[in-house]
């Protein structure tokens, strides 16, 4: 197992390298720059700023310089947030994104699995149609539509919840962002679980267990559910990475100081280093969580062995 983990980590390094390279050149090809203001700067001031960061060098040299700093854990200073490095900004914002993402991921995973199992056990009944209809609605309606609707109902109309901001960090400030962030993923988990559970319940070993007279809960929990969770685990890796590192739309919509909001502000202000820092962070999260998913496979499915 240890050898498999080390090989996977080493094989993931080229993927991260390609992502960083493409992101570096794409953001610099985009029109505009970090110092393009409505009122143009004096030529001497602009030249000094470019020399300080340094943006006055050829693009290939900037790339090599940035890559060398990243290998040493230095993501450079922010072009917009003065006196802050990108690492400091990410360390400030990451806890907020992790708290929000952890709650949303728990709601999506456990809620989606429960809905999927219940719908599979009552296939083609009205609870099945109702749950799958709700999941289809959550999967098709974008969160930038669901968010304002929920805010209008529960914050403006009923005055039960705040409209946004982190506040004192209590859960009442996170209810709406967590629901909006979790609903699309909950719908996907529910549909994946339902489809795989229906297939697992018709498998030969499950039929044999039922024929031997095992309790229904034991058949579902120990045999069918274990096999039915495999597609859910496969989808869990990239989903967890995107949710835990902060949703761009949700954090911007509810004014939460997370990584996703910094990504939006960095892209709008052409803050090259801030955007690159968030891209590297998300890439590392995806690699690590996909590796964890592969490790979990060996514990869930006895047929999977990494020797």
Characterize the overall form. globular
Enumerate how many helices there are, as a single number. Answer: 13
Question: pLDDT average, as an integer?
Answer: 81
Distance between the termini: 6 Å
Proportion of residues in β-strands: under 5%
Question: Structural class, please?
Answer: mainly alpha
Estimate percent helicity: over 70%
Please mark out the parts with pLDDT under 50 across 5 or more consecutive residues, or reply none: none
Radius of gyration: 24 Å
- How many beta-strand runs? 0
Order of helices and strands: HHHHHHHHHHHHH
Spell out the key features of this protein.
single chain; 307 residues; mainly alpha; 13 helices
Characterise this structure.
- About 75% of the residues lie in helices and about 0% in strands.
- The chain is mainly alpha-helical and about 300 residues long.
- The chain has 13 helices and no strands.
- The protein has a domain at about 85-200 and about 230-270.
Short description:
The protein is mostly helical and 307 residues long. It is 73% helix and 0% strand. The protein is globular and about 85 Å long.
Annotate the secondary structure layout.
Elements: H1 2-29, H2 43-52, H3 59-71, H4 86-121, H5 126-140, H6 143-157, H7 175-201, H8 204-211, H9 216-228, H10 230-244, H11 248-253, H12 259-268, H13 272-300
Helix pairs in contact: 1-13, 4-5, 4-7, 4-10, 4-13, 5-7, 6-7, 7-9, 7-10, 8-9, 10-13, 12-13
